[in-house]
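Quick one: structure for this chain?
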Amino acid sequence: MTLRRSRPIADKLLRKLQKYQRSKVIDLSVFRAGKQHAESIQKSVVSSSTLAELHPAHAHYVYAQNQLSVMAEVLTSLPELDRLNGPLAAAEDAYMPSGPPMSPLTPSYYSCWSLFDVSVGNARETLCTTAMAVGRKLGMHENLLQLFELMQASHMAVYRLEGVEEDVYVLRELVTGRVRRAICPSGYRGRAGELWYARVLPPPAANFDVHVVFTTPYLLVKPSETDWLAYFDRSLPAASSPKRNSAYEQHMKYGPARGYWPEFVFEAYVNHEPGVIFLSGLPDVAESRPCSRVNMQDR
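Got it. Here's what it folds into:
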């Protein structure tokens, strides 16, 4: 018999759900989405007409993320979420995630990081895992929960762009060698040989055969692929492929510390163009990042 891992935040919240429902302190109806396009879409959620303009695979994830953002807003008003609220508030103040020129952290990057990657405790609880626990308890539709699960399991990664075949981008993950055939909604075309730092989501359902580059791609202008591979050799254990790949996924999702990857993006920013943001440097070499504290002190 497999014991379920304790989820302190979710378990405490689930115990109080009836109390919250009776007192009407919060509106929990948002967790009962009955179908892919709920009959009543909250004003803060993208409209059906907007979704219709997107590639269907992308539209699935846009809808799911926006629904999840509404749920997260409800959840973060509760004291049970204080352990997550603190780090998120601090990060928002530090990085002002609005996209260039104000901040290199785009809304899509920051939203994914805050919903899926910022975690607390041994159970790695996030806003998304908590929303899923509440959603299951309240009868949320399984299709929406499956999209949440796919997004929760995702992480940023470094890819080599092998080429573009019509509107499909062929991306090879640098460490694992996995190849993803994906659409890139940002519109950036790119050139073969480029290194991208991006979150690539799997096909959202069985009837899709393409992945989705869900964040605006960050183009790693330097250093070279060889230098990035050396970085991963320094950061990951020398182990068999399954163990090393698992360590790599953990490293890309959580980093050695909570703000490791947002800090890298913030300090490595060089420039931007429509649909792409340029970064320079390595996460573990402060001098290589143009906007690192070390370099800023010298100005």
